[in-house]
Amino acid sequence: xxxxxxxxxxxxxRSPLASRYASxxxxxxxxxxxxxxxxxxxxxxxxxxxxxxxxxxxDEQIEEMKSNLDNIDFKMAAEEExxxxxxxMAHVHTFGHCCPKAAGIIHLGxxxxxxxxxxxxxxxxxxxxxxxxxPFPVTDSSPVSVSQLARVISRLADFAKERASLxxxxxxxxxxxxxxxxxxxxxxxxxxxxxxxxNLKRVRDDLRFRGVKGxxxxxxxxxxxxxxxxxxxxxxxxxxxxxAGFKRAFIITGQTYSRKxxxxxxxxxxxxxxxxxxxxxxxxxxxxxxxxxxxxxxxQIGSSAMPYKRNPMRSERCCSLARHLMTLVMDPLQxxxxxxxxxxxxxxxxxxxxLAEAFLTADTILNTLQNVSEGLVxxxxxxxxxxxxxxxxxxxxxxxxxxxxxxxxxQDCHEKIRVLSQQAAAVVKQEGGDNDLIExxxxxxxxxxxxxxxxxxxxxxxxxxxxxxQVQRFLEEEVYPLLKPYESVMKVKAELCL
Length: 498
Description:
Keywords: Lyase, Purine biosynthesis. InterPro entries: AdenyloSucc_lyase_C, Fumarate_lyase_CS, Fumarate_lyase_fam, Fumarate_lyase_N, L-Aspartase-like, Pur_lyase. It catalyses: (2S)-2-[5-amino-1-(5-phospho-beta-D-ribosyl)imidazole-4-carboxamido]succinate = 5-amino-1-(5-phospho-beta-D-ribosyl)imidazole-4-carboxamide + fumarate; N(6)-(1,2-dicarboxyethyl)-AMP = fumarate + AMP. The structure is a single chain. By secondary structure, the protein is mainly alpha-helical. Among the domains are: about 145-210 and about 235-295 and about 310-380 and about 470-490, Up-down Bundle (Fumarase C, Chain A, domain 2); about 380-465, Ribonucleotide Reductase Protein R1, domain 1, CATH 1.10.40. It has helices spanning about 15-20, 25-30, 30-50, 60-65, 75-85, 85-100, 110-130, 145-160, 180-205, 220-225, 230-245, 260-290, 315-330, 330-335, 350-375, 380-395, 395-405, 410-430, 435-445, 455, 465-485; strands at about 165-170, 175-180, 290-295, 375-380. A two-stranded antiparallel sheet has the order 1-2. Strand 1 (about 165-170) and strand 2 form a beta hairpin. The longest helix has 29 residues, at about 260-290. It is elongated. About 40% of the residues are buried.
C-alpha cells in the first residue's frame, strides 16, 4: 500500500483478476478496506475478551474502538508504514490516532500474526462456507464458493436429467467409441464437481482459528498479563475464537499457524480448477463438432476478422484461469517447506499474492461456469448425423448375432461384414462420402433374412446400455441430497463482469 500508485488510473498496472474477471463482492472481500477493517475487529474482540477476564480496560475505550472500526485513514496508514516499514504497527498507530483513549490497549499482548493470520483464516472461511461468516457482511449471502459451486451442479443436473436418454457418440482417445447419452456425459462433469463440493466442505469444517498465541506460540505475553493464570489465558483464546465464528483454534502454533493449512485450502481450489478445465475442454471440443455450444449473446462478436465465428470464449476463459489456479498451489507448498523454526517472514509477500489470487480466480471460474451451464445449447440433429456415420460399424456385432439366430454361420457372416465394412470405410476416408455400410448390407441377398430387422438393430437407444438409468439413480441418490442444504441460494443467476 505504501509504495503503490493509483490503482484506478489507466496509467497504473491493475490485476486483470480485479479489473476484468472477479466479482465485485470478491474484490471487496480482498480489498484493503475489508482487510484492515477485519484487523480492527480482531483488536476489538481481543480488548473485549481481555476486559471480561479482568484486565483494566474501560467501557469507554471499548466504545471508542467500536465507533471507529470503519474510520480508516488510509493516507495516514501509508505514511506510517513508509516510516516504520511495518504494516501492522502502521495500522496500530492509525487506529490509535482516532481512538486516543483506547490507543494504549490496542493490540495488547498480541503479535502481528494475531491480525495477519487470523484475518487470512477468516477470509478463507468466509469464501468456503455457504453462509457468510465474515466479521461484517458483504451481501446478504455468501458471494462465492460452495453456494456458487452448488448452483453450477444444480444447473448441470437439470441439463443431465432433461437429456438423460439422448444418444450421442462416445469418444475414447477422441476417437469414436460406443454410444452414451448427453445426460450421462454431463454426469461425468457433475461427479467431479460433487467431489470438489465435498472437499470444500471438508476443508471448511477442518479449518481452525490461530487464536491468541503470542510471538512464538507459547502465550507467554498473555500469561504475564494475567499474572500466571493459565485458565484465563485459555479462556481468552476460546472467547476470541468464538467471537470470530470458529468452533476450534489450534492448540499448537509457532508465531504463525502451520503453512500447511494454506496447502490444504489451495489444493482443494486447484482440484476444482482441474475439474473446470476438463469440463470446459469437453465443451470446446463439442463446439468444434457443432454438437453443443455455450451461450452466445445477440451482439457478441466471435472474431474481429471472421464475422461468422462463434468461439467458445467463456469456456476458453475458464480453461485459461483454471490453469493459473492449478499452478498457485505450488506457492504454499514451497512456503511451508522453507519456514524456519517458529516462523520466517519470507512467507509474507508470497501469501499476499497467491492466496488472494487463488480465491479471486476460483470465484471467476465458478461464476463463468455457472453462466455457461445456464445457457448450454444442444443440436440433436448434428448428433444424430454423427451417430449415423459411425453406428453401422458399431452395429456389426448385433447384425452377426441376428444372422446366426436366423440360421446363418457366424464365420461366414463375419467375413461378409468385414469386406463390406472396408468398402464402406474407403468411401468415407478416400472419397469423403457418407458411411454406406447399411445400404450395402441391404443390397446383399445374403443378409435378406434380417433385412426387416435392420431398423431395430440400428436404433441408437439400444446402444446406450444403462446410461439413462444411471443418470436417474446418480441424481436421486448422490446429487440431490448433496444440494439440499443450498436450496435457498439456487435462484441466483450468474453475471459476467466482462
